[in-house]
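Researcher: Can you fold this with flavin mononucleotide in place?
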Amino acid sequence: MKHQLHNLIISRRSIRLFKQKKIPLGIIKKAVNAGRLAPSAANLQFLEYLAVNKPQLCEKIFSFTRWAGYLYPRRMPPEGKKPVAYIFILINKAKTKQPDSRDIGASAENIILSLLSQGIGACWIASLDKEALIKILKIPKNYQIDSIIACGYPAENPKLETGSKKIKYWLDAKGRLHVPKRPLKNILYLNKMK
Ligand SMILES: Cc1cc2nc3c(=O)[nH]c(=O)nc-3n(C[C@H](O)[C@H](O)[C@H](O)COP(=O)(O)O)c2cc1C
């Protein structure tokens, strides 16, 4: 069981191409439930979530998102590969004056990993036209959009690269995404740093 969780965590990659298959609402609810149970500084729990799965709304939301900046516009999901649902991470401003970004990170990663454990791929997106989204989704004034999680059954299988010195992900000739990560030996220090 412990081993399975570890493998799930290290196998997670951002997914930007999706099958056009509906996600059962129960899967989304389970993932958001994992998100709400994440650690929270002073347990303020200022995060709330808006799930969107209506196709017309998803289409509109998509037009206000930006994908894979290093490859733009080559990894924009094309027609037939777009997300089929979104989870909005919202800050309820009445619950805190200074939202701690660590709460957001912990909650978002819980959601993404829970989705993955249920067979759903996701991409966390912060490059957004938030003003436009607030309008179309009728988000009240006391809420702020932090970011969104785009979801769907995966239609790509990005490859982890650890040997590369690059940080920019790239596409190979077959259109497969390669995602470089800095090797453990370069970033983990033991006891003293020098
Ligand atoms: C806070 C945050 C915001 C992100 N925003 C975007 C985004 O707007 N568009 C996008 O395509 N990917 C976005 N990503 C995904 C990153 O590009 C991705 O995590 C990174 O390239 C590493 O790939 P991996 O998630 O497969 O490990 C975001 C990731 C994080 C953590």
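Model: Folded with flavin mononucleotide in place. The first strand starts at residue 47 and ends at 52.
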